[in-house]
Every structure is written in C-alpha cells, then in structure tokens.
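Chapter summary example: a protein plus iron/sulfur cluster.
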Amino acid sequence: MLQLITKVASLHRLTPITLTPMNSPSKVQNCRITLEKKGGSNYAKLSYPIHCGMFTEIISDSFILHFNLKSEILRARGKGANWGHPHEWLKRTQGNDWIYYSTGGYNGVFEAIGEYYLPNFDYQTNNLLGGHPFSESTISGLTISWYQLLTELAENLNDASKPVRRFLDRALTNTPACLAEKAKRLQEIIGGRTSVLPPDARHVDYNLIPLTIAEGCLHKCRFCKVKNASSFSSKTTIEIGDQIGRLKNLYSEDLPNYNALFLGEHDALQAGGKLICFSIEEAYRQFGFADSHIAEHKSFFFGSATSLVNSPEQLFVNLEKLPGMYYINIGLESADQDSLDKLGKPISVSLVQEAFRRMQEINDRYSSIEVTANFIMDDQLPANHYPAILELIRESLVHTKPKGSIYFSPLTFSQPSRARLFEFNRLKILSRLPTFLYIIQRL
Ligand code: SF4
C-alpha cells in the first residue's frame, strides 16, 4: 500500500523546488521529481544499469518511476529489502509488455547473451536462463500499482511548480488502458504485432522504432513459432511513407529518445536495396535521428539465406554510405541436411554454406555492416547438427573474428535447461566468431 507523500523536493531542469507537506509527519515520505533528466547517450555494456535518453524521474523512499517525454511510464523499480537488487528494473516496452531486467547473479550472463542484464518476460520465450520474477508479488505488483502510486502522489502535492503539475496531469492521462490502446495503435500502423526482434537489437536495449517494409517470409519453416501466415510481399514507397508519418505522430515528443530502426518483418533483405535504402533514409529524416539524444544511428533487419546470396554487392555499397551501423540477421538454423529436413526448413545445406561464406565476405569488406546468423539448439536434432555448425564457425575460419556474431536459439520455449547451457558453452568456446544465446523478444 502506498505511503502518502508529504514532503517533496522537485527539480525542474536542475532547479530544486521544495513543496509543502500536507499530511501528518508519521506518513512522511520523501520524494524527488526530476523533469527532463538527461541519461546516457550510449547503450554501453556495463555491469550496472545505464538509462539512456531523456526522461522524468520520480524517486520516493519506496519506489523509482521513470517516464518518457510523452509522460508515459517507462521504467519502475522498488526500493528496500523487498526488492531483489538495486540494479534490477522493470521496463515497459512500446508494445506494452513489462520486462524484468535481472542481474542473473552475474553468473555467466554476459558470456551467454553479451549483456550484463538478463531480460525476463511474462510471456513464453526460448530463454535458457533466469527464473520467474513475475510470479513474485513485489515485481508483478509494481507493474499494476505504479498508476495508483502516481495518483496518490499527485493528489498530495499541493504546492508543485507549474511544470511539475503539467507533467503529473499529463502522466495521469496515460492510464494503463490508454497505454494498452497506444500499443494497439502501434500494431495497427505497422500491420500487426512484431513477434520477434533481431538478437542484434540488444545493442540498443531493443529501443527502436519498427517500420514494416515487407510482410511475411520466404520459407514458412515447420519449426518456427514466430512466423505468420502471410506470404512474402514488399510494401510500396507510398505505404512506407504513410507508415513513417503515422509512426512520427505516435512517437511524437519522445522521438529524440530513439536512434534505431527495425525494418520488419521477417525478411526485409528480400525487399531489395532500393526499398531498404529508401526506408532508412526517409525514416532517418522524418524521425530526426540526426538530433537524437542517443549517439550513433543503428538499423536492424532480418534476412534469409536466399535473400542474402541474391543481394547484389551494390546494396552493401549503398548501405555503407548511409549514416550509422547496419545489422542483418540471417536464420540459417543448421548446416546439416538431415537437421534442416527435420526442422522443416526447406533449403539445402549448400545454400546455408554459401550464405555463411557471403556473410564473412560482407563482414570483412564493410565496416558499418554486420551480418549475423542464427542456429537452432536442440538435443533431439540428428547427431551431425553441431559438428556441421562447428565446421562453419570454427574449421572454415583461419582465426577468430570480432564481428559476425553467431546466435544459438533454443527450439523449445519456457524450458530453462542446464544441459543445453552446457552444450552452448562448449560451442562458444570452440567458435571463432562471437557466440551468444538468442533470447526471443517481441515488441
Ligand atoms: S525461420 Fe524465418 S524463414 Fe522460417 S518460417 Fe520463421 S520467419 Fe519464416
């Protein structure tokens, strides 16, 4: 239950304002509100949380709440003995999911996923690590009670400065129902929920604007749990321009907190160089990425073995001329024909090998492009599955490379497994490319 707020120090652009207490001293709770607080400008990989961009912060004795520049709840954490660790946070995505960032006890989390935090979801994914934080009432409770905390705080501030009052009034209009509605509007604009984001999006903590430039995918693999029924089709430049305009309206004042783009859906590479470059340039201009609070633009998209080998050199030459970094993630899944067949992935092992070779060429040739690849992890696959992958990620390379990450994606969902983690560690040690686990995250 919320303790009533009676003593508040408010900061507006670093100017402290003390507000008059109005409740009995026994219920005093100190609270500080900082409007437009400037966080980090780089998603640096550090062992403590860095909050990037600009946000409003409310700190009380028992909780911390962060709001974006549209006064929508962004992050929350409890304080005190009941909260697991001061480095652990809840984050709300634009898809209106809450994610719990745990430290994972620092036990091998960085080695496994390339980040110091471990994302935990309250929906099913393929995570091998982590527990069930949302079953703890302190954590799940805060995803619900934050609005009541905010309401009581606003009611008990009788002396707030105009900017603080404006912020509170606006934040209160962003009710949980209203935020759910905005998430629906995002899905409606981009043509449906983004069921999976590329693993490379971890480099921006998945804070990106989705833009659908093509629907569906080429292969409709039997094993895949994130595919949809749409056969592959590209959007027109008019449709993409319209989508950008509507996204610009939706993100509005919070646009400066973004400098990353996800080109959807499952095989944007197949849409071709012209459409890809048009979409990136138009989004960069319309979203004002050059003026973002976040340094260095990054774009992410998926490709397939087919679209990668069919992409002409000119696409990569043109991408290299655009500002920022480009991450293209290719689903290869296996380098063994029996395994591909068992997975129901309708491509040949020679295409996988060719795509892998092409990936190395592009990574060697273009400093601002990184092509990464996914393989499946599952102990039920034929015996040659892992040896065939090692043939590519170890034997085919003369020495280790810093670029061209390999992601292993467990086939089964919601089944943390120590045995599979052990297998992953073995593959990581042998691999000559940076190698991580792929935790499927939606938007
Ligand atoms: S793995 Fe990729 S290509 Fe295969 S069905 Fe899923 S999204 Fe489509």
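Key point: The pocket of iron/sulfur cluster is lined by residues 217-221, 224, 226-227, 266, 304, 331 (CB under 6 Å).
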